[in-house]
Design brief:
Layout lengths: L3 H42 L5 E6 L11 E6 L2 E4 L2 E2 L4 E2 L4 E16 L2 E9 L25 E4 L2 E4 L2 E3 L1 H6 L4 E3 L8 H6 L1 E3 L2 E3 L12 E7 L5 E8 L2 E3 L11 E4 L4 H4 L10 H20 L9 H20 L4 H24 L9
Parallel strand pairs: 1-2, 10-16
Antiparallel strand pairs: 2-15, 3-9, 4-5, 6-7, 6-8, 6-14, 9-10, 11-14, 12-13, 13-14, 15-16, 15-17
Helix pairs in contact: 1-5, 1-6, 5-6, 6-7
């Protein structure tokens, strides 16, 4: 027959064993959550830092400056680009003017040299030809090719940095608006196959004739990941990939844009609270066998918070100072609370067991 005092000893040991297992499970759970956050942040750091997934119709919010943001939608041109010389405006982020001149070109095939006239987008120096006589070119263009950026292009509530404007994909040729041409240019140029040409006979250009055309970047759905700087999206200069932004056509998820990213941690704070509660339950079972502290819930909560915060502090060492200091503060508060409680528990009704 087992003596009653042996039953008490057995129950006490089983309680402590179960409590120790709960404490280990709480530490393991807390470590899993924090390591997941650490790994996710490390992956994000390779692309520029912490990221906020704003999606479509995103607006700047306080406290998000410096974070990366994923923003999607169709860009909206607020201030249209303007080619002032030809008075051309387009609803596009980027308008490109191309100017070509009908000039002599030198072509060499093996030991043979031949010459023909064609449209070329830069002055050709005929003095460098093997046979320059009879192949002189006019020289400098009277009007130059140029790129015209929109004054402001927005994606959601954010203005796009010029670097992002230049990264917008796609290009398509557009016909000029003849009704907007200044009078002097309207008298010099005519429209032929989508080009403005100075040729008297557009189908038979002569040496020195000009041909002007325009291309634009089309407005289409895009997804951008870049750093928030007030109400602007800019490249992250300190990104580990050396680029600092991602821009792709269509609606793209973070995993589409960054295949190397692990799954983002979910319900982080809930899991942290559950880890503290699990550690507190373990501490309660361990401490319940101690004389004078049986059923001591406040002390168990303080010890549980101390165990979890100490484990989290160790994990964040060398990874990120801010979370490490936050967890260290929780650990210190738990220590102070434990010390204060142990000194005053005799005066508390629940401290009498």
């Amino acid at each position: 027959m087992i003596r009653p005092e042996w039953n008490d000893v057995l129950r006490s040991r089983l309680s402590r064993l179960l409590g120790a297992l709960l404490l280990l499970a709480a530490i393991g759970g807390a470590a899993t959550v924090e390591q997941g956050v650490i790994d996710y942040r490390a992956a994000l750091a390779r692309h520029g830092g912490q990221l906020v997934d704003l999606g479509a119709s995103a607006l700047p919010q306080a406290g998000q400056a410096g974070y990366l943001a994923r923003v999607s939608g169709v860009p909206r041109v607020v201030e249209l680009p303007h080619d002032t010389e030809f008075n051309q405006r387009r609803d596009t982020p980027l308008l490109i003017r191309h100017v070509e001149m009908f000039q002599w070109r030198e072509m060499r095939f093996g030991g043979n040299t031949d010459y023909e006239m064609d449209w070329v987008d830069e002055p050709v120096d005929a003095s460098r030809f093997a046979h320059p006589a009879g192949h002189a070119n006019p020289g400098r263009f009277p009007v130059a090719s140029h790129r015209f950026e929109a004054g402001r292009v927005q994606l959601g509530g954010f203005a796009l940095d010029p670097v992002l404007l230049h990264a917008l994909p796609g290009i398509e040729r557009v016909a000029p608006d003849m009704t907007s041409l200044p009078a002097n240019l309207a008298a010099s140029f005519s429209l032929h196959d989508g080009y403005l040409v100075t040729s008297a006979r557009p189908g038979q250009p002569r040496l020195g004739d000009l041909r002007v055309s325009w291309e634009e970047v089309p407005l289409q759905p895009v997804t951008v990941v870049a750093r928030m700087d007030g109400d602007h999206l800019v490249p992250a200069k300190d990104a580990g990939d050396g680029k600092g932004y991602v821009l792709e056509v269509g609606e793209r998820s973070l995993l589409d844009l960054f295949p190397d990213l692990p799954e983002p941690p979910r319900w982080i704070y809930l899991w942290r609270v559950l880890a503290v509660l699990l550690a507190s339950a373990g501490a309660y079972l361990v401490l319940s066998g101690q004389r004078g502290v049986r059923r001591d819930v406040p002390l168990s909560l303080a010890v549980g918070a101390l165990v979890v915060s100490a484990a989290a502090t160790v994990l964040w060492l060398g990874s990120d100072t801010v979370p490490m200091l936050c967890w260290l503060l929780v650990a210190l508060c738990s220590v102070l609370a434990t010390i204060w409680y142990l000194r005053h528990r005799r005066a508390m009704p629940w401290g009498q067991g």
